Amino acid sequence: MRNFVAEFFEAIVPSVKAEEPEEEGPIDEEGPVADEETLADAEPEDEVDEEAEEADDDDEEEEDEEPEDIMPKIQQKCANSSICHEYKHHFDECVERVTKAQEEPGYEDLEYKEDCVEEFFHLSHCVNDCTAPTLFRALK
To answer: pLDDT for 106-121, tens place per residue?
Structure first.
């Protein structure tokens, strides 16, 4: 059995020798040491920092101008529409029934406690079906 496991392991796990990285020069605690040519070609740090700060300022201005999310409004209209009226009615009745049952003494000791998960999913499915076409037309 041990032989089978060893053969199986060898067949699945590739046996590749790890390549050692090439050394480009002396490595300091701060990282690789740059040679003089590289340092001569580099721009001064002050100019690079100013350009990066200007680009960051532009990005921040664009992020502040986010459009209003219209989905919650569309979902509310759909939930109150005649299309989803039946599902909302069943969900509201269930919530009322469960709330009333929770207020009765001895509720904690009951073996079965009703929840409204099924009614919620039916309502949610109806609202999503109603919301999708309107939402995607508005997003185009």
So the answer is: 888 888 888 999 999 9
Are the beta carbons of 116 and 102 closer than 8 angstroms?
A: no
Closest to 23 (Cα-Cα) out of 13, 8, 33: 33
What are 53-68's pLDDT values in tens digits? 665 555 555 566 788 8
All structural domains of the chain with their residue ranges: 71-105+114-139
Q: Choose among 78, 71, 77: nearest CA to 139.
A: 71
> What whole-number distance in Å separates Cα of residue 9 and Cα of residue 15?
10
**Fold entry, domain 71-105+114-139:** Helix Hairpins (1.10.287)
